[in-house]
Amino acid sequence: MDNLEQFAAEHAAVTRRYFLGLSAAGAAALAASPLRGDDGQAADLVREAASRLEYLTPPTRFRMFGRGKPPPHELPPEKLREVGLAPETWRLEVIADPQSNAHVERPLSKDLGTALDWPALMKLAEKHAVRFLSVMTCTNVADPCGMGLWEGVPLREVVWLAKPKANVRRVFYFGYHNDDPKQRFQSSLPLSRVLEDPPGEHPVILCYKLNGQWLSPKAGGPVRMLVPECYGNKSVKWLQKVVLTNTPQANDTYAEWNNDTESPLKTYARFVHAPKTVKAGRPAAITGLAQVGPAGLARVQYWLHPQDEALPADDPCFTKAPWKDAEILPPPSRWGGGLPDGTLPPVPRQVDPATGKPLAWPLRGALVHWAALLPGVAPGKYQLRCRTVDASGAAQPMPRPFPKSGNNAIQEVQLAAE
Asked: Distance between CA 215 and CA 205 in Å, rounded?
C-alpha cells in the first residue's frame, strides 16, 4: 500500500468510526473512496462520498435527553401502560388554563371522557399527516442530536377540536410529570404559530414517527411535540397535556434556566474529521457538517492559521481572516436512517415525489455535510477553524452570537504538520 492509499484508508476508517460513534451526526458518511490529493480527483471523491452518505440518523443513535426520576423511558412496559405512555392508554388533554380567562367550548379532558386517544389521533392522521426532514439540536450543546424524518398530525387540527372561542394568546404544553412541579418539563408557543405556518415553514406537529418507525419511549413516544424551526426544548417529549391560555408570557422550563427559548435554529459548521497531525507538504482531508437555520446556507469555509502568528486585531469573529470555501455535499442518493432501501416517502414542500430529490438544497432546518482538502503546509503547529455564511450574508457566529440562544461559536481545533 503506497502513502496515498494508506492516507485514504486511514481517513476512511477515522471518519467511519466518528460517524458511527457520534449520535449527533447520524451515520457512517464519507467513509467511502480515498480522498485524492489532486484537484480533479477531489471533485470525483466528493460526488462518490455523497452517493454513499447515510444522511438520516438511525433512531437508536439519536442523542436523547430524558428528564425526571426516573426518566419515563426507563419505566417498565407495564408501568408505561399504567401512566398513559403506551399507545393503548395514551390520552391528550386540550383544556383552558384555569389561571386565565381563556374560553374553550369543548375541552378535550380526561375528567369529561373527551381526551384525544390513539385511535382518534390515527384517524386524524389519515387525512392530515405530514412528514418533513428536520434536525434536532439542544440549545446548550455544540453538536446536533440527530437528523430525522418526522411524521405527525399538525397540532392545530387538535386545537380546533377543542373549539377555542376567546382570550387565547399562547399554548402551554407538558410532558410526563406534568403534575409534579419539581420534575415537570414544559414549553409554550404563541397561538398564531400553532394555527398558521410562517412562509416556507412546516407545521408544529403531534409527532408519532421518526424515520418511518413509531417513536420509542426514549424518543418521547408514543407522542411528542415537534416544532421544526426551534431547538429541542420546544419539542417536548411524552406529551400529555396542552393548555390554551390568555397569559401573554412564556412558561418554558428552559426560560427558567436562563435560556432564550424563542430563538430559532442557528446556521453553523462543525468538524467531523480534522486530523491532529499531518505530513508536512502533503494535502489533508477535513470533513464536517453544517446546521442550516431559517436564513439558509450559502457557504461553508475553513481557515488554517499558524499558531505563532498574531490573530487579526479587533476582529473577534475573524471576519478579516483569509477563509477558504469547502465543498457542500449534494443530497445523498440513499438517505439511510433505517428507511426501507434508504428511500424517502413523499415529503411535502421538501422532496419532489416524482424524482425523490429535494426541491432545494441545502434544506432549511436540516443538516448538510461538507468536505475540503487542506493544501500541504510547512512543518509547524496550526489552528484550524470552520464557519458558515448564511444566505443573507451573515458569517457565523453572527447575527446571533449569544450562547443562551444556541451554541454557534466558531469551532477551533489544533493541527500539527510534521
From this structure: 13
